[in-house]
Specification:
Two copies of one chain form a homodimer.
Chain A lengths: L2 H12 L2 H10 L6 H8 L3 H13 L3 E3 L8 E3 L2 H11 L2 H23 L1
Antiparallel strand pairs in A: 1-2
Helix pairs in contact in A: 1-4, 1-5, 3-4
Chain lengths: 112, 112
């Protein structure tokens, strides 16, 4: 799988609020599917499907314990997302710089 | 539209290599749909569909020129992506720190 296909899977996996919420929960520590299902008020098949999508994008890894297979967050695909976004930093930074400049100009004219 | 729905649209729009390629092209400057279609060897309906998805996620804006309506990159949704990823920075940083430590340990043992 090349980087392009990886980013497709990662962004696709992140495009659902439940999957982002699962990642936020796992940032606090590993959890079993049952532990994940409870706070989200989701059926086990529904949560299992989301977990498979996240696992397929390498955003989570599963433990080897045959009965519980706890889920853990894997930060590397998120680092890839940050790296992808970072190449456009000059574009949003430039916009924020212009906004800062506008605020300074507005303050200056208020002080006149 | 709240932040959660926005992130759904943004991540969904980014989950296709052609759409990420369009953004990379627009980072060089605004372009019409025709100008975008040429290098990607894509039909106008296909590229128009991708542009609508990007526009719907506010990743691009369209000019007012009735005939050409040039597309321009909007950095703010990408800043939102960077901000989302950044909340997990401690997780991937910790992993890279561990890798650095492993490399130092390996070097030390080679020097013995």
């Amino acid at each position: 799988m090349d980087n392009i296909a990886e980013l497709d899977l990662i962004f696709g996996a992140l495009a659902h609020p439940a999957r982002r919420a699962i990642l936020a929960r796992l940032a606090q520590g590993a959890a079993t599917v049952n532990e994940l299902a409870a706070p989200f008020n989701m059926s086990l098949p529904a949560i299992s499907k989301h977990i498979r999508v996240l696992e397929n994008a390498a955003l989570i890894t599963r433990g080897r314990d045959a009965q519980f297979r706890p889920c853990a967050l894997n930060g590397e695909p998120i680092a890839a997302v940050a790296q992808w976004a970072d190449q456009y930093r000059h574009i949003w930074d430039a916009r924020f710089d212009r906004m800062d400049q506008m605020i300074i100009t507005m303050k200056d004219s208020t002080n006149d």
